[in-house]
């Protein structure tokens, strides 16, 4: 039995990037042997085991044979006789098909190091075309490593185009598509992800509501997201909202139809609802109050904060208005319901009177 470090850990180690997780392939072992050594099996479709101490994933070397359409129609073989080279051949890109043994020696049968040095994303074999999910993965890697100068090999681009033209992307589940989108959002260059899919005429297949994508869209998004703090807890939500705020949703329910989490779809809806008011030439106290009402900002101030984080990146004008919104909310929040009740107001009158007092407080921002 031999154990090799594989995939992303080897790739990122060679690129000098932080290693976030370590995956291993095990050659010459059976599931029973792994369990006897204390490994915990977690995979159902194929044997994947957790190391008894480190909990790193260890997968038995395997080969795959395509059966049917889509990315789940595979028959896998995990016989102990399967070699490391056979296992690496089934991987998507050459840069992900490099292994390292326990002594640190690299095993690179498909010239992944050469492609790393050349900054090229190239498929390992024609088996790439059997899994439509790999179209999204390559778009994601192209985005992740764009700042390092990586490009997609022309042959791989052509293969991806054939997969799109053959309708393979239609077999992907909405949940799996979203996982790739969210991973690309985390990487911080979602505009490149969109550029790649748009170049394949595949963006509308992944996100039907986003039926246009231009170079200007890409440049504007990059300019906006570059102003965000990637360490901020709201980075993913704000970058998603900025990415999609120009899209015409046309009745699409992102949560139900595309399995996009509520926090993301709400961030997008709030930004789209707020922008007409933020851009309004009639920027007055009543406009601010209308915006606060649309965002339910008195009860859920975090929605206002999140919207402003995104909106303020769009222009200096909107940044100034978001600063004003913050001040206005602070003034309005000082209005105390108990004091209004003490004045004798009851039921619906309480909210009406509080809105009057909040309006008076906020109007001070427009005086002088």
TrEMBL record:
Gene3D superfamilies: Beta Polymerase, domain 2, cca-adding enzyme, domain 2. GO terms for biological process: RNA repair; tRNA 3'-terminal CCA addition. One of its GO terms (molecular function) is RNA binding. Residues 149-208 form the tRNA nucleotidyltransferase/poly(A) polymerase RNA and SrmB- binding domain. InterPro entries: CCA_bact, NT_sf, PolA_pol_head_dom, PolyA_RNA-bd, tRNA_CCA-adding_enzyme. Signal peptide: none annotated. Its cofactor is Mg(2+). Keywords: ATP-binding, Magnesium, Metal-binding, Nucleotide-binding, Nucleotidyltransferase, RNA repair, RNA-binding, Transferase, tRNA processing. Residues 3-122 form the Poly A polymerase head domain. Belongs to the tRNA nucleotidyltransferase/poly(A) polymerase family. This is tRNA nucleotidyltransferase. It comes from Pseudoalteromonas rubra.
